[in-house]
Amino acid sequence: MSTTTLPDDGNFSKLIDQQLELAAARLPALDPAVVHPSPEDHEEIAVAHPTLEDVLLGNAEATPEMLEELAALEAAPELSEEELARQALAHGGEDGDASTPG
Known about the structure:
It is a single chain. By secondary structure, the chain is mainly alpha-helical. It contains five helices and no strands. 49% of the residues lie in helices and 0% in strands. The mean pLDDT is 77.
């Protein structure tokens, strides 16, 4: 755009000011206490439970529940190939065909 096609700065800023005044006149008056309540009015936001990834990366400590679950998984007996195949066939696939594993 060349300088000859740009609007005059004075007219343009006047137009912007008028538009801002019109928009501000349409806004309702807000009570600051309602819009921004004190922090005492807020409930504490629950902190998300750490994930295994968080623990492995050192970003969080493992919870007792997480440690119990890991211990139970380590203590669980290994499943044979036959048992894994039986479970896969027993539950069927996501397509609803019980004859195909998921």
